[in-house]
Amino acid sequence: MHLWQEFRQPNSISEAIEDLLNAPAPVVPIAGGTDLLLEMRQGRHEPANTLIDLTSVPEMNLIEKRGDSLYIGACVPISQILTSTLVRNNAEALIEACDLIAGPQVRNTATLGGNVAHALPAADGTIALAALGASAEIANHNGLRMLPILELFLGPGKSAIDKTSELIAGFYIPLSTQGQASAFKRIMRPQGVALPILNCAVWLEREERTVKEVRIAIGPGGPTPFRPTAAEALMQNQILDDELIKEAVKVVLEQGSFRTSPRRATSEYRKHIVAGLFRDTFNQAWERSKN
Q1: What CATH number belongs to 6-53?
Q2: Which of 109, 261, 286 is nearest to 199 (CA)?
Q3: What is the mean pLDDT of residues 227-256?
Q4: Quick one: fold of 180-288?
Q5: Does residue 195 register a pLDDT over 80?
Q6: From CA 143, how far away is CA 67, in angstroms rounded?
Q7: Dihedral sign from CA coordinates of 187, 189, 191, 194
Q8: Is domain 59-174 classified as CATH 3.30.465.10?
Q9: Minimum mean pLDDT among 37-46, 81-90, 137-146: which range?
Q10: Any idea what DSSP says for residue 49?
Q11: Where does the source fall among the domains of life (predicted)?
């Protein structure tokens, strides 16, 4: 059985949208294809009449500064993000998350856009982007619009993007300034399985011993990527000590929904390990923010 009948390779976002709207349906966009092609072969995704390869769109392959933001195109391979000094200097949590995605061969092909587009609540890149306060640039026939990263997700595997008429073009991350830093850590099964039991990312801004601002992302902590905003509010403008961390963990457990997953871990185990994971991730970002 053929997985697709027609293959198109647009050279601009506008051409890609034109193909998405007018090519023989069903139309499926592809970049790395590391998940998509496997799902097609296994029958978990319907075959495409038209496959649209986005990797030749220049705007979707850039890593650059744009104003006060870092821009990463949706088709940039994970391995290229890992070697970018610009990303490392402004979004170290994303570097650490990307370094845990699959293995080297997959990272050479897989893209950040694909990692986010699958809309999984614990995806490594997604959790890092959520803590970094990223926004997604969405393309459709009306042009480009910005959407806060968490607004992309409706549920496990369910995206707010209309796949028949819209594409994720790229991501914007605020540039890092003095006193700001981020970190990402994961607890997972053996490396050969590479499934996260729990992911955590923290971005913070400090002033001496005071937590001026903090963003926390944990996954899976619910049906969508989870930001424990109550814990963030609790820590904001507070002097850091062990008691503050303990109180923040309590609020994370109250606000989150840590479910049992047969292939990963029980709800009880996830609740048990979240305190240590959060503390380690926060402390890593805190130490980095000194520099």
Answers
A1: 3.30.43
A2: 261
A3: 97
A4: Enolase-like; domain 1 (3.30.390)
A5: no
A6: 20
A7: negative
A8: yes
A9: 37-46
A10: S
A11: Bacteria
Q: Where in the chain is the domain with CATH 3.30.43?
A: 6-53
CA dihedral sign of residues 221, 223, 117, 141: negative
Q: Which of 201, 178, 215, 182 is CA-nearest to residue 291?
A: 178
Q: Which amino acid is at 276?
A: G
Residues near 217 by beta carbon (within 8 Å), at least 6 away in sequence: 127, 128, 130, 131, 199, 200, 201, 202, 225, 226, 227
What is the per-residue pLDDT for 1? 60
CA dihedral sign, ordered 153, 278, 91, 104: negative
Write out the two tokens for 42. 């296994």
Which residue bears the tokens 């790395």? 32
CA 138, CA 169: separation in Å to the nearest integer? 6
**CATH 3.30.390.50 location in the chain:** 180-288
For residue 262, the model assigns a pLDDT of 81
pTM across the whole model: 0.95
Backbone angles phi, psi at 134, to 5 degrees: -75, 160
Query: Tokens at residue 22, please?
Result: 């007018």
